[in-house]
């Protein structure tokens, strides 16, 4: 595995996930927010640096996706341990977000036998909205942006499922449904 900067940033998110869980379990919200911020920063930088340095790869795309999964799952569980009442109040939105996040993965596994790493433009916008929404929700108990982000995830889910249905084989870094259609039809 090439140990370049983008891949190391993705691996950081995977390695940081247990520590984020530990921060939640030990009721350490400051450590939680520091780790969460570093994980979000590494997510924002890995793809940018990979393109800047010409270090994009299938492996990098997969590591980024695994880093995202590690971040999302550990954040949800650690937040539950830190703010159970707040998360109970937002339970319907949290369950919806998890379901909407899992459904495209399910389609990808069914069709290709592996997870997709499309990294669409809408996924990038969705990640920014969700990250900011989670920070506002957990840090300030303000749920509006989190709610908007969940609705935006539905659009992302529909596009990702459509891309899976369009593509004959799994491919990474498909910017939009239009790009998937274009790749399929040459």
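^ Assign residues to that structure.
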């Amino acid at each position: 595995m090439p140990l370049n900067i983008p891949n190391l940033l993705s691996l950081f998110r995977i390695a940081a996930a247990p520590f984020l869980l530990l921060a939640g379990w030990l009721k350490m919200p400051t450590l939680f927010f520091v780790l969460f911020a570093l994980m979000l920063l590494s997510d924002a930088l890995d793809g940018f640096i990979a393109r800047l340095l010409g270090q994009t790869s299938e492996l990098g795309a997969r590591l980024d996706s695994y880093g995202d999964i590690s971040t999302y799952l550990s954040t949800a569980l650690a937040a539950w341990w830190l703010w159970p009442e707040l998360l109970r109040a937002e339970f319907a939105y949290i369950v919806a977000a998890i379901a909407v996040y899992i459904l495209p993965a399910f389609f990808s596994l069914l069709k290709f036998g592996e997870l997709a790493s499309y990294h669409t433009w809408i996924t990038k916008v969705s990640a920014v909205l969700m990250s900011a929404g989670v920070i506002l929700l957990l840090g300030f108990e303000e749920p509006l942006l989190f709610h908007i982000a969940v609705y935006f995830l539905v659009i992302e889910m529909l596009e990702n499922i459509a891309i899976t249905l369009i593509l004959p084989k799994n491919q990474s870094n498909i910017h939009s449904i239009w790009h998937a259609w274009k790749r399929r039809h040459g």
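The helical segments are 5-25, 29-53, 58-82, 84-89, 91-112, 121-140, 144-166, 177-184.
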